[in-house]
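pipeline/complex-builder :: batch 7 item 3
reading input block
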Amino acid sequence: MKLVKQLAVTACAAAMFATAAHADSIKVGSAGGVTGPIAELVATIVKGRDLARDQINAEGGLLKGDTLEMVIGDSACDPKAAVDAVGKLVNVEQVVGIVGPSCSGATNASVQAVTIPAGVAVLSDSATAPSVTELKDNDTVFRVAPSDAYQGLAIATLVNKAGIKKVAMTYSNDDYNAGIAKVFEEEFKKMGGEVTANQAHEPNKASYRSELQTLTQGGPEAIAIFAYYGSSGITIIKNSLENGLFGKFFAADGMFDQSVIDQIGADNLKGNISITQASSDTGDASYQAFAGAFKATGADPAAPYAAHGYDATFMMALAIEKAGAADRAKIKDALRAISDGKGEVVRPGEWAKAKKLIADGKDINYEGASGSADFDANGDVSGVFAVNVVGDDGKWAKELLK
Amino acid sequence: MAEFINFYLIPGLVLGSIYALGAIGITMTFGILRFANFAHGETMTLGVYIAWSLVQLTGFKSMVAILLVLMPVSMMLTIMVVLLIDKAFYRPLRASPVIILVIASFGLMLMIRSVTQFSWGVQLKTILPGIQPRMHLFDFFSFPLKHVFIVGGALLLMYAVHYVLTYTKIGKAMRATSDSPELARLTGINTEKVVMATWVMGAGLACAAGVFLAVDTQVDTMMGFKILLPMFAAAILGGVGKPYGAMAGGLVIGVAEELSSYPWLGDGPLLEPGYKQGIAFAIMIAILVWRPTGLFKGKSF
Amino acid sequence: MDPVLYGYMLYGVSLLTVGGMYAILALGLNVQWGFTGLFNAGIAGFFGIGAYTAAILTTNPHTSHIGGFQMPYVVAAIAAMLVAGVIAFLVGKVCLKLRSDYLAIATIGLAEIFRLIVNNETWATNGPRGISQIPRPFEGLPEPINQFAFLGVVLVTLAGVYWLMEIARKSPWGRVMTAIRDNETSAKAAGKNVETFRMEGFVIGCMIMALAGALMAHYLKFVNPQTTDPLLATFIVFVMLVIGGSANNKGAILGAFLVWTLWSASEIVAPRLLEAIGMTDAGIRSAYVRIFLIGLLLQIFLQKNPQGLLPETRPSSPGKNSS
């Protein structure tokens, strides 16, 4: 009992102390499933967010030299944990806006239960469920990650263009991959293709050999995989190659990570795998600007949604700057203004330039590392996709999908 | 037929031998310390990360060197960690009711996992990169070479367990304690020693099972937890406290999981693979209901 | 009102709301584990049954899942409890004969199978994508009154469940329950039908858990299979009951509020602790430290205070002195 009391007292003291100590910092929530099923993806996304924060703080910070502080909230990909974590960010940490949370389910619950009523802007960097679009959000929910509807179409187009008529597909039974898979199946059939088999698989199994064997029936020419690389994707490709079941793979961006090549081997994958990924339609300048800086921190710029994490943070900061104050209501309005396709182009890393433009009262238009990041009426971005194949250097090589 | 053996039966045996090794530790803890150890999966993960670190340190690339040299070392290190954990967390609770021990093990599961995630990070790692060559036998059988090592290694370790339990003094004491702790104490068996031996055996085998799994797939911080429930199922199927039962149970569950999606009737899989994970539980519940002593006549309390 | 104070107030409301729902869960578990000695480790399953039933019955029609019945909250909550009760009865028929650890593992297995079903039967549950836009009682009221109103709903429900459980505990029925838990053989010898009593305890406990699930669905306004993740739906409830005091209804409630507050507040404290000891890049790592500290706290509690904060008290039985 004593111990509990002491802990409670320390907790209160620590909370008080913290609000007092960082008077000249502006807090933005950095919510994500840092523990839980996609922890390894989120770790890199958060690094992307932190890179943006570091660059901004190095180039003069926010407003009158205030520091941008990113406060982590662990949504654990679980709606219960997410509502609690986001609630703390909004009510205790008093953040002015939130970047994240990562999983669609966690985002869906926490925006409905916490941020929409509180009027706090949420800019998600990886929630892609179409159901987020349907919410009545008073224009507070935005995302830089394109809805699944776009990516499903992109992969279907890619498979169709490769001249493949019969494809088997398997998806990991989670909110993200199941959504893209559904769109893919509809779109591919519309294009006249045949889906020979479509199977859900439970992630995190030690082996998928028997599933894959079943999927080979009906003579598919390739397999479309909708999975996270960590929880099942790599195992599926490994099992396919080791057992000679499938040789040609198409995948959505949950599969996109350097470790796919590192673990399976570039020679085994070269020419055989294509992974779609949300990308920039304004050439590669924005992406390169981000990638160079991100590589310098020792992280992989191509990791899924790392660029989106960077963009979301940078845009949130731009919105604060544009709003001219750490004011929740003004920030949500400013988010549209900084990325409406009009005004002088600002790219990743150009914080000082953006700051000056805003100070001079000029319009700016952020062109992100992950895409143009222009919001539509729902606060969504339209998807522009690139396809990634294995390059000569054993790294992913990216090519825009038109 | 070849397809059935190569893609359903052999993968099932590989998975089954990994389950079996893990289940031995669970069943012995259940039999001797009387509680379901939820931290067993994390012990496995910890063992894998220790092995991964050794691979990085030594730069070994060949599967044989990793399995013959590094795996025994990591087994030792895992055993040492687990003995320390026992000293700090389980020993003070020896006299407590079962539920307290179960909850303590659940707490330890979280603690070990957070230590692993804190120290090694959550990014995926690999012990054995690349695609392993396939072996062909009589133009009929065909399987990756690593599977021979995994199944062979598991059989070897199971034989070692058999040897220890049958021919050594401590092994006999372990079996006696598992069969009847009161009787064992009366006959003058040193219970603490038996408990130590249980942890040594459980942790060592957990580490080995984890390394085999990592060689077959990849290294991640949730890998042990992901196969915890099938291992429980294997232990129950085999009969609690029965190491041979756990071996058989592990193999049965591994094979049953893989065979469940074979197109037994018509063209489609018998069971949608999404439900594959349910197989282990369904078998487990069926056994609990119809034959609670398990296949090998373990304890029914 | 000062925004900082206002924020702390809202956080307090959310702590009490979620704590209250966990207290209902803990009371449900207390009937099973505390009074009857049934080790139900599949709390998440019955919690999930309640959440999904309430979600399907109260939402607007939607193409992605069945339902859209727009039923009143009370009807949905009762339906959630009935569904859970029927399923618990069937499960109980099969599993209640087992020893406590075995029952634990069997119920974990059943909760996992439930999760697989909601994941795979997409036509009914929208699979992994979950059911969104679940209505919440009083959400039409202005901020923050609606939050207080929902807190009221939770606390009134909690008080009702507590009241019923206290009556049950002090009744002859409750005394038979503890008698069975403590000594099954003598209870049998006294002519009590042990099987029936156990079944009653199990079914009632599961129905209470489903009620908590229904409330949670309205609170989160969203359910998906992750909502029934065992860490925050099964394990933490056991921790609450053990820390609060097993077989003591007040203990169950105290444990729930206390552990939930610690769990939630530790996220605020952990990064500051790391910063204080000079660890930079605390960010993500503090999430791991936090879980480690919770685990450690639990271990300390188990070793130092295994009966919990409020140990069991026996109601005085008429005619003889109970000990």
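note: The first strand of chain B starts at residue 134 and ends at 137.
queue -> next item
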